[in-house]
Amino acid sequence: MEARRAKAVAAATVLSLLVPLLVLLFRFGHTVAFFVVLAVAFVAVLGVLAWVLSLYTDLSHRQLSLARRSVSDREEHRVEYSFLRKVAGLPIKFRLESLAAATDGFRCLLGRGSSASVFRGVLDDGTAVAVKRIDAIAERGDKEFRTEVAAIASIHHRNLVRLLGYCVTPGPRFLVYEFVANGSLDRWIFPSRDAAADAANGRCLPWPMRHRVAIDVAKALSYLHHDCRARVLHLDVKPENILLDEGFRALVADFGLSKLMGKDESRVVTTVRGTRGYLAPEWLIGSGVTDKSDIYSYGMVLLEIVGGRRAIQVTEDKKWSYFPKIVHEKAWQGKALEVLDERLNREGESPPEAELRTMVHVALWCIRDKAEERPSMARVVDMLEGRIDVDEPPPQSEMLIYNILEHSVLDAEATDDRRAAAAAAGLLDLGPPSSAPGSIEVSLSGR
Ligand SMILES: Nc1ncnc2c1ncn2[C@@H]1O[C@H](COP(=O)(O)OP(=O)(O)O)[C@@H](O)[C@H]1O
Ligand SMILES: [Mg+2]
Hints:
Blueprint: H1 2-28, H2 32-88, E1 92-93, H3 96-102, E2 109-112, E3 116-122, E4 128-134, H4 138-152, E5 163-168, E6 173-178, H5 186-189, H6 195-201, H7 207-227, E7 231-233, E8 242-244, E9 250-252, E10 259-261, H8 281-284, H9 291-307, E11 312-314, E12 320-322, H10 323-332, H11 353-366, H12 377-384, H13 400-406, H14 416-425
Helix pairs in contact: 1-2, 7-9, 7-12, 9-11, 10-11
């Protein structure tokens, strides 16, 4: 505006000097009076030009400092905003270049699951992180990314892994987690093929830590089921998704398959993509999942923590070994100690019998076929911490999965129903004992 006014004044001045000059020139020719007026006009034009120039310089200075101020204001807001998000524990957005720099080009692989690869990294401020790159094909990867962010972006518990940030690219999506020093639980409870190396590395979790891990996980699940605004179903509870920090405290991780459940919803009908061996029977019959489905998987994990073995294994003579059935029988015979991981059975190291018995009984209650017979996660915490007694194991029952195995689903005579149920439970095509269980995908919708 100011610039336009200056231009108008300048033009008016020049014109008002030019017109008398021309009149003088035509009237008097090249006389002294004409040159005097010309000189005066020249000086006046110079003056006006100098004034316009100073006006412009002043204006551009002002504009420049305004622009600078707005950039610094924006930067200040950005810093303040990310500070507030950080303080509030909300995940922040990362750029792909920062993640590539933090992980040194995605070099150090920490682990790989069914849909993602996880790399170790260090942020600029020195925070150790685990960067999860979701490799699953576009649509599924995007769904898992959104599900995982939605489930844990705004919830906090000392036994849940912390999501620090995320990064969206046209290709894979990334989630940035706090780095958990001792990796996943499976590495600490299942013997590897090299027993000597396990002993040398101390890779066998002692009983007190196993007991504490069991309580930590129960507390995390209890929080998800009872204390969040929307109930969160994890739906993939297994040792690979439980991480151990430097003090061997457990953190529940991997919310890629989780579901949010409204407080007034009683069950969720969903496409099942759990992990073989940990799926609750209600998934087989397609009656939807509830928090009790997590409790079933938790019970299986509890048994694996006690026994130091997978719940379902193929023996050397190609038969099934179903650990829950063995444990149930031993518990009824009062011989719970016999199911303990034999590496813990050394003199002086074996657990207090009452503690072991409680853990075994709780596990057996959690894996009841009928969901309504399983205890809530809050009750499980009370049982494990000794506020509620569980002196008795649950009564004998069918154990659906055992029945399926017993009638060998691999038999040619097995009915189609059994085969379908077994496939849904992930019992067909089970890998060798030491291999990690993979994921299966079975759609139960419409059943
Ligand atoms: N925050 C972390 N710190 C250390 N290791 C991790 C972390 N997150 C994941 N891992 C490792 O990566 C593996 C796969 O991660 P996960 O989130 O379960 O991926 P997926 O969704 O593919 O199963 C885990 O079993 C664990 O060994
Ligand atoms: Mg996982």
